[in-house]
Amino acid sequence: MDEKKTLEIISTVPLTEGQQNRIRGLGKHIRLTVSPGKAPTDLPKDAWEKAEVLFADGKQLPTREQAPALKWVQTALAGVDRALAQPLASDPEIVITSASGVMVSQMGEYVLMALLILGHKLPETMPCKKNANGAAILPDLCSPWNCAAVRLALSATGPSGGKWRACCFPWA
Description:
By secondary structure, the protein is an alpha/beta fold. 27% of the residues lie in helices and 22% in strands.
């Protein structure tokens, strides 16, 4: 990319100040416009005319006439079904990508953390802080259980598997 040419990015998804600074910090040639939740008609016409990259939820995409320079749409969600239902998706000049897979390691870490918390009986130990006699039962509660002796069933629920359910069964 020519360093003198400005790359116009529009985000209709909320970004923290840190996220915005990180994107802008990629180069002086980047201009980022953040307008959370805005419909394409709510943004100034000149912003759309120059935008090459759009970060959106995929619900409301501009038309090709509104965004003639648009080349890439990145959806904030794992699926692209909403974006593919938009007329813009049929344009062969547009690349539509999703966030599929970018949060898998974080979800895995969360599940592992939850297993460790349950395995070390943390929920049972929390009331001991308030109980004057808790010190006597604390060592027994804090001894971990043998993970090899149980089967664990995990299921992802909710949009993009954002919620987890776990069930432990004795190993038979």
